[in-house]
Amino acid sequence: QLNPHFLFNTLNSISTLVLLKQTExxxxxxxxxxxxxxxxxxxxxxxxxxxxxxxxxxxxxxxIEKMRFEDRLRPHFRIDADTIGARLPSLLLQxxxxxxxxxxxxxxxxxxxxxxxxxxxxxxxxxxxxxxxxGAGADLSASPSTGVGLANIRDxxxxxxxxxxxxxxxxxxKAGFSVILEIPFETGDQNT
Length: 192
What we know:
5-stranded mixed β-sheet; two-stranded antiparallel ribbon
């Protein structure tokens, strides 16, 4: 479920770049948006992709957002090599990044760091999206009616994995918010 605000903000940014005659940046942003939209349209929400594909899509999304937020958006990826072939529902992580941008980067004058980590834990993959914002994302986890993105992710995990998945949110001690997903390690069409 793509947030219409993302599309509106991106198109508005492209329009501004065109007005400022920054055609190279406008073209680059348009090309990234086109690639991102092509990916979202080509993959069914129930389809599973590799973690490597999901990370590449997240990087594309973050490149678009980085053109808007510049140095205020600081993404970091720590993806263990033995997790890149793991399969997960397409675009499962994008709403988590979107929430981190909305609740950690946007309200802060200095922006925020966002960490995307993945590690293997036995027969499971642990994926965490964390930020060092003010922890406002914790309010979303308390109320599913306002945390539509988080509720959708919970539902998608349940549909894909039943009871074999985990979904945890937490407000970090000093600053920030974290969402941890645990899914069975699957590659190809069979469980490993």
